[in-house]
Amino acid sequence: MRATGQRPLAVIYLAINAACAAVVFQAAHRVTAQMAIEQRTLSDSVDGITFFAAAAPAFLVALLTNAAWVVKALVDLWRRRGHEAILWLGGAVVIWGASILAARLDPG
To answer: Is residue 5 part of a domain?
Structure first.
């Protein structure tokens, strides 16, 4: 039997990933918009610093959250509680993939 409170924890986990991915997308969009304003096609070192300064906290939060969730998924598999945590991890991968793809295709 599944313990109560598992689903809200998973929803919070996915919401944290979505928020972090949105912050990373916003940071990438900010850099590409500045490049478009300056009519540049290539980024320079300041663009990288600007992106990293805005996105680093989101990457750190997402890294810690996902590491904890991977541990939870492995413990669930080890104790044979099911594979639901892995499915939620897959949802986070989809969110990050969509965010990175959108940032990559963003014209600015």
So the answer is: no
